[in-house]
Design brief:
Blueprint: E1 8-14, E2 17-22, E3 28-34, E4 53-56, E5 61-66, H1 67-76, H2 78-104, H3 107-124, H4 139-146
Antiparallel strand pairs: 1-5, 2-3, 2-4
Helix pairs in contact: 1-2
């Protein structure tokens, strides 16, 4: 939940989730889609309150990793820490791409960009075949991501 401090990390193992913010009106803005392999929020492990919410969009299988073992793992295995830092940099680059998408592209261009992004991300984890993948998102989910 937005505003809470988590004592664990969540890793999506199966399914689709999102990271979003809600307006006072109740409308949500989806900030990112989370697919298998994604860590939902690293900042929560540092004791920071979430400035957004995480929501499952489909049935999901989630791994819950407690803060202390997670931090211990990073301290004992610098290569894992480095890999997670690289993943964070990739997430930040995607967030910037989403900002450009919302601010500078037409509706059809936004949709095309999202579909291509998901093709690449799902392809990297073996969830595509012949350039195709399942897209279990509703029209409302797409609208809340694409504006």
């Amino acid at each position: 939940e937005q505003g809470r401090v988590a004592d664990h990390a969540l890793i999506v193992l199966a399914g689709f989730a999102n990271r979003h913010k809600c307006r006072m009106s109740g409308r949500r803005q989806i900030l990112a889609y989370l697919v298998p392999g994604d860590l939902c929020d690293r900042g929560a492990l540092q004791g920071y309150p979430l400035d957004h919410a995480i929501e499952a969009l489909t049935p999901c299988r989630i791994a819950k990793v407690p803060r202390v073992p997670y931090m211990d793992l990073l301290g004992r295995h610098p290569r894992i820490a480095l890999a997670l830092q690289r993943a964070r940099l990739a997430e930040e680059a995607m967030a910037r791409a989403w900002l450009v998408n919302l601010g500078m592209r037409s509706g059809p261009e936004r949709m095309a960009h999202l579909l291509c992004e998901l093709l690449e991300r799902l392809g990297a984890i073996g969830q595509t075949a012949d350039g195709q993948y399942d897209l279990p998102l509703t029209q409302a989910d797409l609208a809340d991501a694409l504006g």
